[in-house]
Amino acid sequence: MDKSNNLLQELSQKISNNDILFFDMDGTLVDTDFANYLSYKKAIESVTQSVIKISYNSEKRFNRSVLKGVIPNLKETEYEKIIQEKERYYADFLPKTRLRKSATDILFKYSKTNKCVLITNCRKDRALITLDYFDLTDKFSNIFYRQLDDNKKKINKYKNAISCLDISPKAVIVIENEQTEILDAIVAGIPAENILSI
């Protein structure tokens, strides 16, 4: 039995029709790491007007922190421009993304019987073009995108969605791949046994 079947079996033992499934996107539902890296690489070269040697690391997602480590001497405005350009170039690399079978099998099965919600820390435009690319948008009753507080800090996406939907965290089943986000789900009151790590 493959991992996907094991997860479906595990889920079927704990889920009822009243449960709400929260899906993360990047790394959980869709593997976007390589497209993300290529988008950053193209954006860096566009903004700096030079070829920068940056190796792809499949173990670590390329993000703002990695960017500042790779090119530590840029001005803050240049970092911001790279991030803007990276978002713009992402669509060019959609063919380099791929669905994660274990999570999409769960989504395809339970979107017919349960409320499924996308909870992602990515920006709205990128989330929508990714979902549209794979015809997944209509599988979700609600979509929550990256939210920042007044100090421009990322907010707990699980707390935000639970509050907006006005639901009990005990009624939520989480499908997530990132450990820090799993901790955020627990902080939001979702029972650890309701969290499936993909």
Task: Please give a handful of descriptors for the protein shown.
198 residues; alpha/beta; Rossmann fold; 2 domains; five-stranded parallel sheet; two-stranded antiparallel sheet; globular
Topology record:
Elements: H1 3-14, E1 20-23, E2 30-31, H2 33-48, H3 64-70, H4 76-89, E3 98-99, H5 101-110, E4 115-119, H6 124-133, E5 142-144, H7 157-165, E6 172-176, H8 179-187, E7 195-197
Helix pairs in contact: 1-5, 2-4
Describe this structure in words.
The chain is of the alpha/beta class and 198 residues long. The chain has two domains: 3-31 and 97-197, Rossmann fold, CATH 3.40.50.1000; 33-95. It has eight helices and seven strands, in the order αββαααβαβαβαβαβ. The strands form two sheets. The chain has a five-stranded parallel β-sheet, sandwiched between helices. Strands 2-3 form a two-stranded antiparallel sheet. Strand 6 (172-176), helix 8 and strand 7 (195-197) form a beta-alpha-beta unit. The longest helix is centred in the first third of the chain and has 16 residues, at 33-48. The mean pLDDT is 90.
Quick description:
The protein is α/β, with parallel strands linked by helices and 198 residues long. The chain has helices at residues 3-14, 33-48, 64-70, 76-89, 101-110, 124-133, 157-165, 179-187; strands spanning 20-23, 30-31, 98-99, 115-119, 142-144, 172-176, 195-197.
Average per-residue pLDDT, rounded, comes to: 90
Q: How many β-strand runs? A: 7
Largest sheet: 5 strands, parallel
> What structural class is derived from the secondary structure elements?
alpha/beta
Query: Biggest sheet: strands side by side, in what order?
Result: 5-4-1-6-7
Low-confidence segments, ≥5 residues, pLDDT <50? Answer: none
Separation of the first and last Cα atoms: 16 Å
The first-level CATH class name of the largest domain:
Alpha Beta
CATH topology of the largest domain: Rossmann fold
Order of helices and strands: HEEHHHEHEHEHEHE
CATH superfamily of the largest domain: HAD superfamily/HAD-like
Helix content: 40-55%
Overall outline: globular
Radius of gyration: 18 Å
Strand fraction: 5-15%
| Count of DSSP H/I helices | 8
| Oligomeric grouping of the chains | single chain
Count of distinct structural domains: 2
Assign the CATH architecture of the largest domain.
Answer: 3-Layer(aba) Sandwich
